[in-house]
Design goal:
There is one protein chain. This protein is an all-alpha fold. Helices cover 87% and strands 0% of the residues. The protein has 11 helices and no strands. It has helices at residues 3-55, 62-122, 127-164, 166-185, 187-197, 200-241, 247-259, 266-278, 282-307, 315-329, 331-349. The longest helix is centred in the first third of the chain and has 61 residues, at 62-122. The chain starts with a helix and ends in an 8-residue tail after the last helix. It is a multi-pass membrane protein. The chain crosses the membrane at residues 9-27, 33-54, 66-89, 166-187, 224-242, 248-275, 282-302, 322-347. It comes from Sedimentibacter hydroxybenzoicus DSM 7310. Keywords: Membrane, Transmembrane, Transmembrane helix.
Amino acid sequence: MTLDDKKKFIINIAFIITAYSVLYFVFVYVIHWIMPFIVGFLIALSLRPIAKFIRKYIKGTGKGVAIFVVALFYAFVAIILWLFITFLITQLTDLIYAMPNLYFNKVEPLLLEFNDWIVANTELISEDAATTLSQVITNGINYISDVIKNASINIVQIATKIISNFPLYLISVIFTIVLSVFISVEYDNIIAFIKRQLPDKFNSTFEESRVFLVGKVWRMIKSYIIIMFITFFEILVGLSFLKVKYALPIAAIIAILDIMPVLGTGGILIPWAIVEIILKNYTLGFGLLALYLAVTVIRNVIEPRIVGYQIGLHPIITITAMYAGLRLFGFFGLLIAPITAIVVKYLNDTGKINLYK
């Protein structure tokens, strides 16, 4: 390694440490204060293509069209959220009340039967091992029972915390709406002002990253959102056909988990199907397996068509980035870290930065 290579290596390491330090400080201490601006900016950015399209056919100022599009967007979101959340809360409430009976009447007897089977077979090898294993399983069952019993208390505490923070949430939402309107109206002036404050080299890298994000990553995100909704409706229809109670919240949870690497729909549907088959609920058990196969086949067919472009980020890197983002920055980091990793990979591949070969 030459002296220049050593200097570049040290500079790159210093850059990474500085960048992560700044990101950590921003996400941990600053993000809560600037979140309305970030969300408002992203909403304004997302609605710009719609505003441009409408301006082609409607006579009016750009500001007037921007305000109209933002107002229409929030009206649509408010109606959808009100309908969805009202129905979802009703089903979630029923599900929460039904969970203890479901566990104590179906799941716990199955676990106790499994415990007896394990002990009976282990005693043939060693009585001490059987006793120890039985104690471990019993402790696990007792722990789950305590969690189920205390679930209602924990939910009440969470609800109380949400209600106590509601004024703060309401203020944040109001600021986000107001900011998104002003940013939509003054978008070009705001971007021009930000560019004037930054060095030309940084502006070039930033502009290339923005084009990449909008042109590639943003399309990918929208594609997977479409896939998530398709998966949600598939599972909702399937569970409704199988006459499963609380189909809506269960379908929503599985559809969200389906986006996660490795876990997918199989992480929920397959164990659920196995438990139902063991409990001799063959119709539901095999129905869940058929639903999983249908969802998997449909996803494999539509994903290449909808996504159309794969970024090429290895699953190990994706999972590592998501875990690191979650630990460092919370749920927001879980979402942002993989996108950051994709942008870093793109900039490194195009030679804008040199972090690795």
